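Weekly structure sync, notes
Attendees: PL (lead), two postdocs, one rotation student
Agenda item 3: pending single-chain targets
PL asked that the sequence for the first pending target be pasted directly into the notes so everyone works from the same version. It is reproduced below exactly as submitted, 287 residues in total.
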Amino acid sequence: MPELPEVETMCRGISGVCGCRILAVRFPRSRLRPIVLRPSASLMARRLCGDTIVAVTRRGKRVVLVLGSGRRLVIEPRMTGQVLVADPPDQQHLRLVMELAGGRWPRLYFWDWRGLGVVRLLSEEEFDGELGPHRLGPDALEISPAELRTRLAKSRRPIKVALMDQRVVAGIGNLYASEILYWAGIHPATPCRQLAPPQWRRLHAAVRRVLAAAIRLEGSTLADGTYGTPASRPGRFQARHAVYQRAGHMCRRCRAARIVRMVQAQRSTFYCPRCQAPDASPEGTPG
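Predicted structure, written out during the meeting:
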C-alpha cells in the first residue's frame, strides 16, 4: 500500500494543481525517520521554486508532477505516504509542503507516517532512464491480454508473486494481487507456465475489473487508517475485499469454504480453497 488504485486516486484528487506556480517548498524538521530525497532538500527547493506544474500523471505506484522546466517531481508513497491538498492528519509526519499560486488549493502536502517514501526531482532523461519501459512494465490498466500472457507465460514463478513484479506489469501490489486472483478463480501458487488460455483471459479481465472498481471507490483504507484520499477521506473499496485480510472468514461467494492465508515471497496471500481450486469456474465481479 498504496497501490495503483490509491495512487490513481491521489493523481485525480490533486489534478487541480495543474497550472499552479510553485512559490516555496518546505521540508518540515522532524526527529522521525527522514524520507529519501534526491537531490538534497535545499537543492530541490531551489530548483522547484518558480516552476509551474503543467500535468499530474502516474507511473505505476508513483505520482508524477510534470513541470514547465521539463523536470518531473516523482513522489513514491511506499507503505504509508499520502499526497494531500487538505490538511494532513498531523504535523509530526508532514514531510513536504509546496506553496502554490494560481489554482484551487494554496498548498500541496506529502505526509508519511513511516517515513519510507521517496521524492525525486528528475530531468526528462533521468526520468526515462529510471522509470522508462526498460525498468517498469506496462501499466496494469493498459496492458493487453496478449502482452500480459507473453510477459508471464514462460515463468516458473507462482502467479501471485509474478503479478507483483513491477518490471512485468506496473501498479499491482500485494493487496490487489490477492483480490485479482480470487476473481479470476486462480490459485495464487499456480506456476505461470501452467496457466491455460482461458485462465489468462480471466486473469486479464479480473485485473481490469478489480482495479477499475477500486479506483471508483477511491482505494482501500485498511485498519491502520494511514491511507486517505487527497481530501483526507478514507477509501471505500475495503468493504468489497473478497479475500484480503479475511483469513478464517467464510467466502462470500461460495459460502462453503473459509478464506486461507499463506506466505509467498515474505508477503501474506489470501485465497478461497474452493473458488480458487484448479478446476474452479468463477462467477461474478468485484462490483
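Discussion points:
- The helical segments are 4-13, 41-48, 124-131, 145-152, 159-163, 174-184, 197-216.
- The longest strand covers residues 94-101.
Action: rotation student to compare against the earlier draft before next sync.
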